[in-house]
Amino acid sequence: MQSTTPLRKRITFECTQGYGELLGGRTLLRAGGIDTLVLAGVHTRGVVLSTVCQAVDLDYRLVVVRDCCADPDPEAHAMLLDFVIPQRAAVVTVAELAGALPGRSS
Predict the structure, then answer these.
(1) Which string of b and e fits 63-82 if b means at least 16 CB within 10 Å?
(2) pTM here?
(3) Taking residues 49-77, what's their average pLDDT?
(4) Which residues, listed in sequence order, are joined to residue 42 by a DSSP beta bridge?
(5) What distance lies between CA 2 and its chain's CA centroid?
């Protein structure tokens, strides 16, 4: 089955060790006119935080999906999502993100 969604709407990068893939995909993202990234991942204090920092340095707008992130240290996870990351990115829930998508209602 072929998707009818334009390519620029469905580019996905899997970053298994930080933001390395973001750097490699920057040209593709910019060529597609993409200026906003939606982030989720395991180890909020590792891969999520480092990707947020790198993406901000590259002038992307960011949305971090709170309930799609995790960390083995719940206190560090909460502190990052409540205080640190919101200084650099919007932090939302899946429901909030879905409600903000075109053609969707909350």
Answers:
(1) bbbbebbebeeeebbeebbe
(2) 0.76
(3) 92
(4) 70
(5) 25
Domain count, the chain: 1
Give 26's contacts (C-beta < 8 A, 6+ positions apart).
58
Q: What is the residue range of 49's domain?
A: 7-100
SS3 18: coil
In a domain, 2, yes or no: no
| CATH for 67 | 3.40.50.850
Pair of tokens at residue 73: 């240290």
Type of residue numbered 69: C
| DSSP assignment letter at 59 | T
The string of pLDDT tens digits covering residues 5-44 is 444 444 444 444 555 555 566 777 787 888 899 999 888 9
Q: Which structure tokens are listed for 102? A: 């075109």
Is 106 part of any domain?
no
DSSP structure class, residue 83: I
